[in-house]
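Q: Give me the 3D complex with nicotinamide-adenine-dinucleotide.
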Amino acid sequence: MFLEGKTALITGAGSGFGQKMAVAFAAKGANLVLNDINEAGLEETRDLVLKQCNTQILLVKADVSKSEEVNEMAKKTFEIFDNVFLLVNNAGIDGGLYTSLKAKEEVYDKVFAINVKGPLNVSKAFFRRMKRQKQFQPIAGKIINIASVAGTPNGTNPMLGIYSASKAALIAFTRLWALELGSSNITVNAISPGVFLTPIYNNDPKLIRQFLETRKIKIPIDRIGESKWVADLALFLASPTADYITGQNLVIDGGMSISISKL
Ligand SMILES: NC(=O)c1ccc[n+]([C@@H]2O[C@H](COP(=O)([O-])OP(=O)(O)OC[C@H]3O[C@@H](n4cnc5c(N)ncnc54)[C@H](O)[C@@H]3O)[C@@H](O)[C@H]2O)c1
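A: Here is the predicted complex, encoded as structure tokens.
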């Protein structure tokens, strides 16, 4: 129960990976702050968690791309909890299947606002309090950014143009924040999933297979990912075993990115 007495805040917790992480963290004793723009999704996640364990949960509807809403979320959080040990920047959107040079300005603005400025807003709103969490020696807090293989050099994907660049930016921020917060004993890491069955892919394995075939992508471990595996990797990063890991981007993709020579 290594998260007992610790609070985990997850953005985009009303669906997909966020939902699975909520269940995984609560099972290790965490209290939860669950954020999303989708209230019904948040309630679904809460009910799912409470079916399995009795933990304290705060639901906060807020758009991560809007700093005022994020700051309000921080205020609400500390009215109820005295810490945020684990901060997971998971909320994200895709930008449709356009190459970056053909994508409309609105797509760029929206995708970067949610996928890049969102994590920045949330980390900015919480890092000062996290630094002061001396009760959790040796590590005061942990930030996990959910990026994507599409943001890694091998996975750079013109079909997901703006999304690809947004996740590369999030991986860059992961390294920056690890440098900026290291002396405060806060670790910052990213997880980059390959292709996983979640609502972002309409929960449709056929759609994923089609995408892989048109791109001639082969996955060495030839399975489509299950969201629980990402939650388990996040749990590892949250655990004391990972206390000495920071600034890293952990790729979980069945080897997909090492097998792509060209896109
Ligand atoms: N599914 C995959 O294969 C895959 C692969 C690589 C990376 N990812 C990344 O994983 C993360 C989670 O994706 P998922 O597959 O679980 O998708 P999902 O669509 O199931 O979940 C994303 C959640 O974020 C919420 N959200 C969207 N905009 C928001 C905002 N402005 N503020 C707060 N919440 C917002 C949505 O309402 C949704 O509940 C995303 O960052 C995504 O880019 C997913």
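A quick observation: The pocket of nicotinamide-adenine-dinucleotide is lined by residues 11-12, 14-18, 35-38, 41, 63-65, 90-93, 114, 118, 146, 148, 193, 195-196, 198-201 (CB under 6 Å).
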